[in-house]
Structures are given as structure tokens and as C-alpha cells.
Design goal:
Layout (H helix, E strand, L loop, with lengths): L2 H10 L10 H14 L12 H8 L3 H13 L3 E4 L3 E4 L5 E3 L6 H7 L4 E12 L4 H9 L7 E11 L2 E11 L17 H9 L5 E10 L2 H7 L6 E10 L5 E9 L4 E3 L9
Parallel strand pairs: 3-10
Antiparallel strand pairs: 1-2, 4-5, 5-6, 6-9, 7-8, 8-9
Length: 263
């Protein structure tokens, strides 16, 4: 690398050793910022591990952990025997370990937003889906439900088509909340009703988008999708919300990380 370019690199590849965030996470954030700002372009190779280790003043193992995370999130891609390159990442790398879509998008440097399609109160016995929602929420089949249809966006691109159900008696007038169009449903539940979601159970199923779903998500009819059924619980174990979300396969991917639990 020419001397002038190396000096520029020293200014680009920076971490703060006074910050409490782990060094690998700072490196991951720094590289992601360089990609988002355009300083690193799609197709451009990033310096090799040994050189990044020198630029950041850390071990190669620390650099490798940061690069591995960015590869899993599709910000980077490795070409065996060639190097590591900036890719055009999926808009949303959805990690089910995060409770909130908003939290997950912010965590990977994407700007979350929502487009509200409808918000209304419906009877639990309206159709098969509402009956199932009532069962999951332990409600009577004649109980009123708040039904919220939204498109979830990352950087203004549609990645999820979501329908959520909550008890209208537990969350009165929630369907009129203006924050549903732009904010987090969980934040509204906490701010207005003091209900904090502590756990979300999800079931994932591969499906194909129908014509209506595809039109809303800007995808092709029949294109692959992941249907996620989620049930949200408080710390006390009360089921307070259930939802069905269809992922736009063209703009999103799911990322899982498993660890062995000793003992």
C-alpha cells in the first residue's frame, strides 16, 4: 500500500480504547460506518486481517471476529484465496434474538420505519386467524381484538408485512395511537399501558408470497418468504401480543447464533 494511502487508512480505521464497547464490536461498527458512508464501496476489498490488526492495534483474532460478524450480516463477503470484499448487503439481517424489529434494525445500522396499512378493532371470531390469535392470547372467542397491519421498512425498503393482534380490553384505544405509523408497538405498549415485553417466542416456516402480499412488499408473486409467528410475553408470563410476519426474501435474511450452555 502506498505511504499516502496508508496514512489515509490510519485516519479511517479507528477505535476508542476508552470506550466500554468491546474492541471487536468497535471494529465492526467502524467498518460498517465506512461502508454506509461510501468510503468503502461495493466490490472494494478491505485490508487483510494482519493489516487491519496493525491499523487498529489489536490481535488478528479480534479483527477476525469483527469480520466474521460482518460477513454473517452480509456487509462483507469472502472469496477463498482472494480476500474480503464489500458486498451489497441484504437490507435487513433479522436476528430473532432481538425482541424488537426496531432494535434489530438500529443494531445493524439500518433506519427502521413502518407504513400503517390499517388499525382497527375486530371480533375474535371473525375468521380463522383471529380465532387462533384469541387462543394464543388466552381470550374468549367473542373478545374484541386490536388488529394492526403494517409494512416494516429498513432504509425505506419493505422487508416485513406484519399483522399483530392484542386484546382491545387490555389495550383500549390502541388502534388510534398515532405512533403506530412510525414508532415501535412495544414502546407504545410500555409508554401508554406500562406493559413491558420480556420474551418473544417465534416459529418460522418457509412459504411463498401470494399476489397481495407480493404487491405490498414490492416482490414477485410466488417468491420465497419466511412466515414468522410470534407471541410476546411479559416477565410474569402473560401473553400480550401475537403476530404473523412475512419477510421479503429479496431484501432480508435471518441470522442465528447458537452457543453451547455448559453445565
Amino acid at each position: 500500500m502506498p505511504v499516502a494511502e496508508r496514512y489515509r487508512s490510519v485516519e479511517l480505521y479507528r477505535i476508542d480504547r476508552q470506550e466500554k464497547l468491546p474492541l471487536y464490536a468497535q471494529i465492526e461498527r467502524n467498518l460498517r460506518d465506512l461502508i454506509q458512508s461510501g468510503r468503502l464501496q461495493p466490490g472494494q476489498n478491505v485490508p487483510p486481517e494482519w493489516e487491519l490488526a496493525g491499523l487498529y492495534g489489536v490481535s488478528r483474532l479480534t479483527v477476525r471476529r469483527a469480520l466474521d460478524d460482518l460477513v454473517r450480516q452480509a456487509w462483507l463477503n469472502r472469496r477463498h484465496g482472494v480476500g474480503t470484499f464489500v458486498s451489497r448487503p441484504a437490507v435487513a439481517a433479522i436476528a430473532p434474538s432481538k425482541l424488537s424489529f426496531t432494535q434489530e434494525m438500529l443494531a445493524i445500522g439500518r433506519w427502521p420505519s413502518s407504513r400503517l396499512l390499517s388499525s382497527r378493532v375486530v371480533p375474535a371470531n371473525q375468521d380463522t386467524t383471529t380465532r387462533k390469535a384469541a387462543v394464543l392470547l388466552l381470550l374468549d372467542d367473542r373478545a374484541p381484538l386490536v388488529e394492526i397491519d403494517r409494512v416494516r421498512l429498513a432504509d425505506d425498503l419493505p422487508v416485513l408485512l406484519e399483522t399483530a393482534y392484542l386484546s382491545s380490553e387490555r389495550f383500549p384505544d390502541l388502534e388510534s395511537d398515532q405512533e403506530l405509523a412510525n414508532g415501535s408497538l412495544y414502546e407504545s405498549m410500555g409508554a401508554r399501558f406500562g406493559v413491558v415485553v420480556a420474551r418473544v417466542d417465534q416459529t418460522l416456516k418457509p412459504v411463498l408470497l401470494n399476489a397481495t402480499q407480493a404487491r405490498i412488499l414490492g416482490a414477485r408473486p410466488g417468491s420465497p418468504s419466511i412466515l414468522s409467528e410470534g407471541i410476546s410475553y411479559t416477565a410474569e408470563g402473560e401473553a400480550v401480543e401475537c403476530s404473523w410476519s412475512y419477510a421479503n426474501g429479496e431484501y432480508s435474511e435471518f441470522y442465528f447464533s447458537f452457543r453451547r450452555s455448559e453445565g
